Amino acid sequence: MFSITTQPIDPAPLIAAVESPSSGALVVFEGRVRNHHLGKDVIALNYTSHPTLAQSEGQKLVDETLAKFPDVEAIAATHRTGYLEVGEKAVAIAVSSPHRPAAFAACDYLAAQLKNRLPVWKEEHFADGEVSWTK
After folding, report:
1. How many Cα atoms within 13 Å fall on the side-chain side of residue 92?
2. Which of 46, 76, 129, 133 has the most CB atoms at less than 10 Å from its CB?
3. Model confidence at 135: pLDDT above 80
4. What is the pLDDT of residues 73-131, one digit of tens each?
């Protein structure tokens, strides 16, 4: 399961979506807006996407991750768009598996794929007033 949202991320529904009595491992990752990048003070990020395309591509990446890690039972992930201040969650991923190695590996893999391949772009807002687009 994958979703794009403009609302603050609550990981509880993601966790509930992947919980299973046969899963001995549940890994949750939250990607948050940090207060610095490349030595500069960051005050906020503005994430932009084409929601329909990002939804479709995000689901493809979740499906790809499930195929690559067959021991994983379930994955739920979401990415937020809009203006996010320091500390707010930009992405959350929950992965369940019978054992932790597969859950950690799948979570790490999906986080990297979302960052590199999901059609979401970020505009960094720096304390000095500069604004910079990045992937």
Report:
1. 19
2. 76
3. no
4. 999 999 999 999 999 999 999 999 999 999 999 999 999 999 999 999 999 999 999 99
Residue 109 and residue 126: Cα distance in Å, rounded? 29
Q: Is beta strand 74-80 parallel, antiparallel or unpaired with respect to 120-126?
A: unpaired
- Other CB atoms within a 10 A radius of the CB of residue 72 amount to 26
Burial of 45 (0-12, 13-18, 19+ CB in 10 A): buried
Q: How far apart are CA 36 and CA 82, in angstroms?
A: 19
CA distance 133 to 125: 9
Q: Kindly give the pairing relationship between strand 2-5 and strand 74-80.
A: parallel
What's this model's pTM, rounded to 2 decimal places?
Answer: 0.96
CA separation for the pair 74, 19 (Å, rounded): 8
Relative to beta strand 120-126, strand 36-37 is unpaired
Which tokens is 111 given? 């986080």
Which strand (E) or helix (H) includes residue 15?
helix 12-18
The per-residue pLDDT for range 42-67, each reduced to its tens digit, is: 999 999 999 999 999 999 999 999 99
